[in-house]
Amino acid sequence: MRLKLFTITLLIGTAVAGLVPALAGQVPGLASAPDVPVSHRDRVYAAEQFSNTVSVTDPFDNKLLGVIRLGDPQPGNLSPLYRGQVLVHGMGFSPDHKTLAVVSIGTNSVTFIDTATNAIKHVTYLGRAPHEAFFTLDGKEVWVTVRGEDYIAVLDGHTFAEKTRIKVPAGPGMQIFSPDNKYGYVCSSFNLETVVISIADHKIVGHVKQESPFCPDLAATPDGKQVWFTLKDVGRTQVFDAKPPFKLLKTLDTGPITNHVNIVRNANGIFAYVTVGGLNQIKVFRTDTFEQVATIPVGKLPHGLWPSGDGTCIYVGLENADALAAIDTLTNTVIATIPIGQAPQALAYVPNAVPEGDGMQNLQPLGVAGQAAHLTLGSVTPAASADAKPTSVTLFDQGLTQVLQAAVTGLEPKQPYVLALASQADGGGMLEPLAAFMTNPAGSAIVNAVGPIRQLAQSGQDAPSRYLVVASGTAAKIGTPVQVQTK
Predict the structure, then answer these.
(1) Are residues 328 and 405 in the same domain?
(2) For the segment 240-285, what is each residue's pLDDT rounded down to a tens digit?
(3) What is the CATH number of the domain that holds 131?
(4) Fewest CB within a 10 Å sphere: which of 22, 120, 149, 469?
């Protein structure tokens, strides 16, 4: 289906090529950069934090080619002698499209991968909990947000060695660069401030107030006019002028678990695509009027996203579905869903990543990374809002254990709750707590637990079935269930 639609789009594009100039400039480059039509030479990469893999997909026919295995699942990665990566999460790529930079939060590292051969070229270890890594657009530096501390680690773009640090407010979440390579924009995950840094001298030259302290992601438009950033805890997206004095332009209510944003330039204009995990949607906004022009249902907990080199499609990782969704940006419809590794986070679409050959070297099959079970929790209150999305739960198989991740929505803001196992399908009977959590200001949360949860929930001769619920209160004093397992 994807190949057929692509062929139709290509034929239409060829027919009108003589009438309309090529629309160029996809992030992170300049608007004057040439389009790169989708081909078998392109690759879509996803960083998968529970399988510790990077999936590699051919976007021409939307086929998973395999995974680059950076580490092992649990419990193997708990060993004191373990040498692989843990919590593979962030992703960026070099301007010559030859190198992929992959951040692993749990092992404080950036792994540099050759895109043509999928071979690891180098691993750089940094400070506590790095989050994202991006090359400057001249390729001379790689900036890494060290979110567990208060600085940007600046690496040499060729040797990948750390050469200096840029002091910023604590908890830098992500950085992206202006398409003219003049400014670096760094939002914060712990403070109410995004800073603008001069790339030439590494000095802070601007400040933008965030409405909340939790920004996970931002993107600059290829025309050099705007920067969009997301606020995960309050479910909003803000926009500011990309040039001095960096004035705040707009605040949009986008929805619970608003996560990543990216920019698409196509025949219809320039658009911001925002993933809203609590609604399982992508919302699309014009960048000139800020009008919302589309809502795209995509699947469970959309996270990272990145457009193709010609803006005809955009890919999004579905964190609680172990899948990659391909979207036609002219119709804003999902045209393919591709199985990938566990809990995809950041995404990168790299045009011409494999200039020759089949690019299959050093790839492995999914294996256990493709194994997961999916559940849904719904409100026990019949009068709950009809448009409220249910809580999605995924059990990512690690072999002997599972990592449970719940994208909880529809609860009271800033209140304590417990994810628990109940002995009765309606939430009655004894409740055994798995994880306690506090909802954010949007009444949502991402909740994790680890253990032999599938085995505990399965029925047996001596062990009755148990069911997932969300209850009010704390682990020490569990209240009544407010959400119960529906399937």
Answers:
(1) no
(2) 999 999 999 999 999 999 999 999 999 899 999 999 999 999 999 9
(3) 2.130.10.10
(4) 22
Residue keyed to tokens 């003219």: 180
Q: Quick one: tokens of 327?
A: 């979207």
Asked if residue 389 and residue 334 are part of one domain, the reply reads: no
For 212-222, the pLDDT digits (tens) are 999 999 999 99
pTM: 0.91
Cβ atoms < 10 Å from Cβ of 358: 10
Using DSSP's 3-state secondary structure scheme, residue 325 falls into strand
Mark which of 368, 383, 414 sits at the end of a domain: 368
**What range does the domain containing 269 cover?**
2-368
Whether residues 344 and 404 fall in one domain: no
In tens, the pLDDT along 1-60 reads 444 444 444 433 333 333 334 555 677 888 888 899 999 999 999 999 999 999 999 999
What whole-number distance in Å separates Cα of residue 418 and Cα of residue 226? Answer: 40
Beta strands in 329-415 (DSSP E): 333-339, 344-350, 372-379, 391-397, 402-408
- Whether 48 and 146 map to the same domain: the answer is yes
Q: How many domains does the chain have?
A: 2
Retrieve residue 449's tokens.
């637990």
